[in-house]
Amino acid sequence: MRTIYVLWLRQIKRYLRSKSRIVGSLGQPLLFMVALGFGFGPIFQKAGAGNYIEFLAPGIIAQGILFTAMFSGTEIIWDRQFGFLKETLVAPVSRMEIMIGRTIGGATIATLQGAIIFILSLLVGFKPSDISSVLSSFFVVFLIAILFTATGTAIASTLDDFQGFQLIMNFLIMPMFFLSGALFPLNNLPPFIINISKINPLTYGVDGLRATLTGSSHFGLKTDILILSIITSIVLAVGSYLFSKIEV
Amino acid sequence: MNQAVVVKNLTKKFGDFVAVNDISFSVDRGSIFAFLGPNGAGKSTTIKMLTTLLRPTSGEILVNGFNPLKDQDKTRKSFGIVFQDPSLDEELTALENMDFHGIIYGMENNLRKKRIEELLKIVELWEKRNLLVKTFSGGMKRRLEIARGLLHHPKIFFLDEPTLGLDPQTRNQIWEYIRKLNKNESITVFFSTHYMEEADKVADQIAIIDNGRIIIQGSSEKLKEKTKKKSLEDAFLSLTGKKIREEEASGIDRLRTRRQMWRGGRR
Ligand SMILES: Nc1ncnc2c1ncn2[C@@H]1O[C@H](COP(=O)(O)OP(=O)(O)OP(=O)(O)O)[C@@H](O)[C@H]1O
Ligand SMILES: [Mg+2]
Fold it and tell me: For residues B158 and B84, is the Cβ–Cβ distance under 8 A?
């Protein structure tokens, strides 16, 4: 238990100390919200789809969580490069504990990041339907945060350098974001895009957030949570296995 | 149990390449043991197998009477280690690095705090305990790693090239601490180095490994006597040859190995 706590604490400390990382990772979501929100807002309205900021904000919050969580998960690559990973692997604790501590740490950071983006979205004009729904959205947020931290950890366990990280960024994170319904509604899209979205876990995260924050959703909150929970369990299991196989 | 380490017919292969080839040796409890050999001889690989980081391909190991494969956690609690490459979290302070270690090794709070203070004072970093490690010099980082490795009262201390890249002052100072701890806490010390005079000065026993095989073991005196040389360095050179290792490397296996080193597979 103390092992998990101290691993968690380490990540929180590192996060709070890297001011540039916090500010840097808020710039992008803010840009998306302002540029896309104000840019596409009028068209969206004209097409009779309602208020675009209302639609976009949950998507951008999900995106912020996705990026931060994936980044925290892949921090293993950094720890390997800087050698700190050996210090934990040689300690008398199980790999499972290390994996849990890291995942909860990364997920906490991603959740914080999500909360900050939520506050920024309020400044840009987002109005969530009511306060109680905001609290229930935290559950969805944490679920997405755990899922993608574990995904990052699983992938990073099989890589040993930074180049691999660029690949993940371009071929996994970006497509997941664009094809998740974060930016545009999934109704009336060509079937192949709909099918890709349906196997994209982020789609259910975005939809779940939208359900809790604005009350409208494509699949329904129960389906979203069920699917997210299943995928998260699978990824956690695979991630723990891959992490337990790391040799230094 | 008078032996801190017992190794029998230990072998490690990476693919077809044999990094450690059927070695056997033992280290007496309370002694200082030097593990010498040219670059790529298999020193770090052996240390990683002794410290549960790598699984041997075959052979037997006992560390403090524990089998590192079966009694992993008991083995881990019983040794401390300073790795060849740095292993500190540079974004944390010296004290935080120590605390992290003490907590994951399950040390009780008061004992941990007391021992941290004691060790940081020995390595002369107590005044700097609240500075981030990234602001430390190479020598300070090494001293911190030494203090950290000793925190949980290990019975054996593994040091893989602990004085690599340090100036003579710092090197002497580090050997001072280590000798003191070896005496006062009767810790067994197992170290590797490329500085022959260090091994000559501090080691009770020496083993020389080359191309994955141990070619000779004994005290410094015995090694000099056998090779009829005056210094340990000359003895070492006459035993391992003057050729630089990479030039000897031939064949696809070695090439593959080196490429893996580039990709970072060596860590
Ligand atoms: N993970 C690995 N995969 C493939 N080959 C490896 C791996 N680790 C080590 N080797 C190879 O095994 C051999 C022994 O390496 P090792 O690091 O044990 O040498 P060493 O004696 O510590 O050398 P040095 O003095 O340079 O530190 C080298 O040829 C090295 O390239
Ligand atoms: Mg080495």
Answer: no
